Amino acid sequence: MKDARKLLEVLLECNQLKTIPRMGWRVRGVREGESVAEHSYAVALMSMMLADRLGVAVDREKVLRIALLHDLPEHVTGDIHAPATKILGEGVKEEAEARVMERLFADLPGGSQYVSLWREFVDRSSVEGRLVRAVDKLEMFTQAYEYELEGNRRIEDFWGYDDNTRDFAFDEVRELYDALRSLRSETIGR
Fold first, then answer.
1. Residue 61's domain spans which residues?
2. Is residue 36 within 8 Å of 71, Cβ to Cβ?
3. I need a labelling partner for 149 at 20 to 30 A (CA). Which of 61, 84, 120, 143 fits?
4. Is residue 149 domain-resident?
5. CA angle (21, 47, 98) in 5-degree steps
6. pLDDT tens digit at each of 190 positions of the chain
7. CATH (domain of 43)
8. Which helix H or strand E contains 116, and what residues bound it?
9. Do 59 and 128 touch, CB atoms closer than 8 A?
10. Residue 62 forms part of a structural domain
11. Is the pTM value of this prediction over 0.90?
12. Number of structural domains, the chain?
């Protein structure tokens, strides 16, 4: 019963991710933008599909686990968008998120495994972590495109920010990004 209670507490806490807005959209005028949980779902779906297409050996279950965990600490820290991260420092953000993950899973049987998987995303220390890292950014571009279709024109800087494509080491991710840019040019004229 004690393990069930602890798991329930963790699950209820993690559900808070559904209420955390993606701040990069909010500061650019998207008032009814996606939550971090909605973004995480899209990353998991895209990661699964790309993992199936990759020519390299990849552990598909691990990809999904990392995708589901990758932004979990934001249920406490909030979504700190790129300009704020540059001011705070990437290390400060990662240290705070690591503390959240360690606290969240400290008393849960097998909890250290979740922290390790999350760390693979942060450190880019496995092919699975690197794939989810790339898809995390690719999903942001697909969402930017959707918001542009809705009429938001304050998102242009996402497309020219080099850090957003620095993790596109997989041909499949790059191909989707190029296809999205082409579609954007055809439909939006940018």
1. 2-133
2. yes
3. 84
4. no
5. 55
6. 578 888 999 999 999 999 999 988 988 888 889 999 999 999 999 999 999 998 678 999 999 999 999 999 999 988 888 778 788 877 888 899 999 999 999 989 899 999 999 999 999 999 999 999 999 999 999 999 999 999 988 888 888 877 888 899 999 999 999 999 999 999 998 7
7. 1.10.3210.10
8. helix 111-123
9. yes
10. yes
11. yes
12. 1
